[in-house]
């Protein structure tokens, strides 16, 4: 794939802006800018680039209006291209103020990453797929999309057949404005390949329904499961409902059991039962065990897949489990020790071995010698308020949950508690913001004269 900024900056004098020194030859490939940090002139990071806003024109190259920048807390705002001072491969620097009102796309505008990548077009009469678009600064100072990276002679969709990658002039491309029933999503996903699931989920929320469905269809089951866990309830249901039943059940199986159980409880009962019936019994079992618990109890928010080992396991084995990439930091903070079987519900629960304690023990020593049983486990019916107090009192990031027989059935982590303490619509709070004051170049709220 092309680099974000082509070799236009070579030889720039120290202390000069690349865009000022070489404005005529700077070519920036938009998709490669996704996730690039945005800084003010003082060097403080304000946010990250999520897209580029352009206006398509019938007989001329698209005009670039500005950048979509994601600022905390996960709000997308608009940064005019006229405020950009320089664009490097790993940083964009702006000047002036940035308005914190939520970005809203005008009907005459298009998003390069969200809407134009993966389009089927024609290049000199041959079918091709858009991989990326490049923008350049014209002599008059405005920014235009002048080049298009395309894949010619290849199949559509995520698994493309081999083809020829070309960079062509915008004037040689036809069909960009046409409505397409199946656009694919390989280019968009490549732009977000290195992002966290929460960031991709936020990007999905801002796409049209059709484009969102295309992206969901192109994601593999594990990645889509991770993304669904970060979406609001209505978006989860919307995406899951567009999948065929077989795929939907596979995605549910790839989700954490507690998140899958929460989603199933939000679905119509008939649909939930049909999806559970399609899941493999071993995948459905941990989800089914969580469904009877009330939502705001320890049982309703716990994960049924903590790290569980028997007392005769070694410290080295415990550390190997903690190092697994798919384990979240809160779950990896401690290993739960129980008699076999070690799948929840386990045999008799013995205690917990904290990560810090494991680091101090010889790797060959037995896990049973590193058990801390000074903090009692909690019961599944303990209300949210008491679970929160328990974690706070003992400065815990997680706590074991045991049933009436003393078996470990799961663990509540601090992120589970936060999910339930926050308002139900916390993931989409920025959608309700009616406006916010602009901030100056140093990231402070901009104040009108006399204030």
UniProtKB/TrEMBL annotation:
UniProt xrefs under SMART domains: MgtE_N (SM00924)
A GO MF term: magnesium ion transmembrane transporter activity
Region annotated Disordered, chain positions: 429-451
Cellular component terms (Gene Ontology): membrane
UniProtKB keywords: CBS domain
Highest taxon in the source lineage: Bacteria
Matches recorded under SUPFAM superfamilies: CBS-domain pair, MgtE N-terminal domain-like, PRC-barrel domain
One Pfam family of this chain: SH3_actinomycetes
InterPro entries from the UniProt entry: CBS_dom, CBS_dom_sf, Mg_transptr_MgtE_intracell_dom, MgtE_N_sf, MgtE_transporter, PRC-brl_dom, PRC_barrel-like_sf, SH3_actinomycetes
Domain CBS: 371-431
PANTHER family: MAGNESIUM TRANSPORTER MGTE (PTHR43773:SF1)
The name this protein goes by in its record: CBS domain-containing protein
